[in-house]
Prior knowledge:
The protein is mainly alpha-helical. The chain has helices at residues 5-9, 34-69, 78-101, 104-135, 166-185, 188-205, 211-231, 234-241, 254-257, 270-289, 295-318, 325-343, 346-351, 357-375; strands at residues 143-150, 157-165, 247-251, 264-268.
Amino acid sequence: MGDNVASEQTPDMSVNATDNAxxxxxxxxxxxxxxxxxxAYGSLFLMAIVPIFIGSFRSVTFQKEQKDSGEKPETMSTKxxxxxxxxxxxxxxxxxxxxxxxSKDYINLLLTAYxxxxxxLALAHIASPFINKxxxxxxxxxxxxxxxxxxxxxxxxxxMNYEFDRRDLFSLAVCSVxxxxxxxxxxxxxxxxxxxxxxxxxxxxxxxNRVSTGCILLGGLFIYDIFWVFxxxxxxTVAKSFEAPIKLVFPxxxxxxxxxxxxxxxxxxxxxxxxGIFIALLLRFDMSLKRKSTVYFYAGFVAYCLGLGTTIxxxxxxxxxxxxxxxxxxxxxxxxxxVALIKGDIVAMFKYEDHTEAEIAAAAAKEKEKETQKTx
Length: 376
C-alpha cells in the first residue's frame, strides 16, 4: 500500500443512502424515484464486479512476469495484514480531524492535484494497450529507455529503469485530457473512470501471497468497517467531504437531470479492491492446480456478487449507510472455503503460495545467467 494510505484506506466506504433532502454540496436534491435508484444501484453493482474480474486475470499475468524476471515480489505478510486495519483506522481518523480543523476546500484542492497525477497514470496503464493498437500503423514510433542509477561499480543500483515509446506518451496525453476534465468539472463520469482504473490496478498489482494472510486481512477489515460505520459518523463524514476519485458514484436522479444529476449513491474503492485481491489470489490458486478449471475464482466472484447485492438490499431497506465488508467478508471467505472442503482441497488451498523462496531463487539465477550470456 505504501504511500497511498489515504487513497487506499479511506475508500473502505459502504454503499451509502444519503438524505434526499440535503445534498453534499448544500443544494437541494430531487427525491429519488424507484427507477432512478434501480439504475444507480445496478450501475454501481456492475462497476464493482467488472474491475475484480478484469484485475484478477491481469494479476495472473503480472505475477507470472514477476516470477520470470526473478524480481522479488512485494507481498503482504501476516504481520502487515494484522496491522492493516489499525493503520487504516489511524489514517481515516486523521483525515476526519483535518476536515474538522481546516477548510475542506483547501484540503480537497491538494487532494485533487494528487489524484490527478495518480489517476492519469492509472488510467494510462489500463488504456495504453488499446490506444496503441488504434494508432499502430500511422503513428511514427520511437523507443526510449530511461535509467536512473546511484553508486558506482559493485554498489551501483537502479533507482529507475523504465522503457517506453511515443505511443505510450500519446496514451498518457489522451488520459491527461480526461484528467483535466476531472480537474475542471469534477464530473461523476470522470471520477468513475479514475475510480475504475484505480480498482483494476489495485486488484492487479496488490498481492496477497497466502490464503491465510487474506483471511487475517479481511477479518480485521470486517471489524474495522463495522466500527467506523455503525460506531461513529467518521466514515460517512469523510466519504461526503472527500472530493477525490476514491469512490464510485452514480446519480439516482439521472432520469430527471441527465448527466448533470447530483443525487448520488456511492461505493468506496476499498470495498472493491480488498475483496478483489483475495478473489485474484483464488484465481492464481486455480491456475496452480492445473485442472483447467477456475472453480475457486468463480466461487469467490459469485460470493462477492451475493455479498454486494445483500449490502444494497439492506441499505435500501433500512435507509442507512451500511458497512459493505460486513456482508462481503463472510461471503468471500465462506463460499470458497466450503467448496474447498467439499472438493478436498482445503489443505492445498491454505498451503498455496504465489512465490516460494525456491521459485524466487531459481528465477533470479535464470535471469542472472541470461545477463552473463549477453555480456559475453
